[in-house]
Amino acid sequence: MTKCENCHVTLGGQLSRCPLCLKALQFESDHTGESLYPVYNNGIEKKNLKFKIFLFLSIVVCSILTLVNILTFQIAPILWFIYVLIIVIYLWIFIGHTIKSKRSIGSKILLQTLGASFLLFAIDLNSGYGKWSVNIVIPVIVMVGILFITFKMSTRKMQWNEYIGYTISMILVGFIPIILFLIGVSNILWPSAVAALFSVLAIVGMFIFADKRFKNEFIRRFHL
Question: How far apart, in whole angstroms, are the C-alpha atoms of residue 1 and residue 179?
Answer without folding.
Answer: 71
